[in-house]
Amino acid sequence: MQENINLFLSGVKARELFSRLYGNNQQVIDHHTKRYTTLAETFKKLFPYDQGEYHFFSSPGRTEVGGNHTDHNAGRVLAAAVHLDTIAVVKATDNNQITMYSEGYPELFKVDLSQLEPIDEERGTTTALIRGIAARFRQLGLSIGGFNAAVSSTVAKGSGLSSSASIEVLIGTILSALYNGNSVKPDLIAKIGQFAETVYFGKPSGLMDQMACAIGGFIAIDFKDKEKVVYQKLDFDLSSYGYHMLVVDTGGNHADLTRDYAEVALEMKTIAQILGKNVLRELSLDDIIRNTPVLREKAGDRAVLRAIHFYNDNQRVIDQTKALEEKRFYDFLSLVNDSGSSSWRLLQNCYSNYNPKEQGVTLALAITENFIKKAGEGACRVHGGGFAGTIQVYLPDKYLNDYIEIIKVIFGKGAVHTLNIRSQGSLYINDLLK
Q1: Which terminus, N or C, of the chain has the lesser number of Cβ atoms within 10 Å?
Q2: Using the 8-state DSSP alphabet, how is residue 199 labeled?
Q3: Pair 216, 425: CB distance under 8 Å
Q4: What is the CATH code of the structural domain delimited by 5-236+422-432?
């Protein structure tokens, strides 16, 4: 099997797997078969003397479906894995070092596993993520070891589909497969990725992104107890309704938005703290309404509006989950529109108050809402953190081309990502092809 990679990746089991991951279309399957074999050839060139067994991995990107800015106040979210993914060709080594090539980066990322303490100079780099994940494995009593890897991703940075979580979960899955008998549970791999991003990479991270990438499919997550996150995987096929999900990248600059993002969580928590609690989940909407006069005085109107959004969107996740379970798709779409309206009016994360001339997200929503109104079908909402970046759109397949033509004129040819929902999370492919 290992002597003939092309044969291994073009076998019946591999093609069946690729049809589930990427789409049941012969041209698509052939494209991804070539994608893996090409990466294997790249690996051979990078590590010509590596005689180990080839191991193949895939970790999806993710999209936020419901619960906009609810997780940081112990709320609920609905997310889904997508067909865009990060793949890796890997061989284990006995040199106690992880060496990783990532397509598009000129230098190899190297981590000596005898040094697992955080290194300040590495903060904000892929090397920091690798070191942090390996460190957390060891802290938890799990086994680690060296490997060489070649990595390629279709989850573009800045696309709003969480390229960072995809790579974090991928690295955790590699260590699980090579050194722990592929036994580390997906939710633990997700938590390990979150730890690495927060502590080693230096970016405070919720757990939604990693959970969606690790588990796959539509997933409802409840963050009420951060030590014991509860999740439910949902069986729902969007394509069976003749619909696709799209993400539109409006091309906004995220570099100057740190203050905007921070203020959302801060204002929500400030409301909770004024009423003697740590997060909004510990209160009710009635508590907010009853205390609105004092909350306006101490925190301001925007903070109160953002708190109201939290409770409404938190409840919407429950309603969306139930709608998907009961196959009430058009009720689900109505809730998506309601969530988008709430983010625009109450949460106010469609553009930065510090740069009001740049309103790509708001513009994309306005154009999309106009398109949906004319079509008579569909839904849209701000996607993820907001302020700049992406919106999420649901449209019948018959309208996709017309919509994409309109959007690419305004935001560029590559602005629209048409997504398939992927039912599988991060995978050790060899284990599925035995």
Answers
A1: C
A2: I
A3: yes
A4: 3.30.230.10
Average pLDDT over residues 330-338: 97
In sign, the C-alpha dihedral spanning 236, 237, 243, 248 is positive
The pair of three-digit structure tokens given for residue 183, joined into one six-digit string? 């036994």
Sheet holding 379-382, edge to edge: 379-382, 390-396, 243-249, 416-419
pLDDT in tens, 71-108: 999 999 999 999 999 999 999 999 999 999 999 888 99
Kindly report, as residue ranges, where domains of CATH 3.30.230.10 are found in the chain. Answer: 5-236+422-432
The packing angle between helices 208-215 and 163-179, to 10°, is: 50
Who's near 275: CB < 8 A, 6+ residues apart?
283, 287, 291, 295
In CATH, what is the architecture of 239-419? Answer: 2-Layer Sandwich (3.30)
Specify the pTM.
Answer: 0.91
Give dist(CA 330, CA 290) in Å, integer. 34
Distance CA 182, CA 165 (A): 19
Please provide the average confidence, as pLDDT, over all residues in the chain: 93
Q: Span 394-419, mean pLDDT?
A: 95
Q: Using one digit for the tens of pLDDT, what is the confidence trace for 132-155?
A: 999 999 999 999 999 999 999 998
For the chain, report the end-to-end CA distance as a whole number of angstroms. Answer: 10
Whether residue 384 is predicted with pLDDT greater than 90 in this model: the reply is no
DSSP 245-256: EEEEE-----TT
Q: How much is the pLDDT for 399?
A: 97
Structure tokens, 224: 């009420």
The answer to whether the beta carbons of residues 85 and 212 sit under 8 Å apart is no
How far apart, in whole angstroms, are the C-alpha atoms of residue 187 and residue 158? 25
Quick: pLDDT tens for 61-75: 999 999 999 999 999
* Cβ proximity of 187 and 127 under 8 Å: no
35 in Cβ contact with 142 (< 8 Å):
no
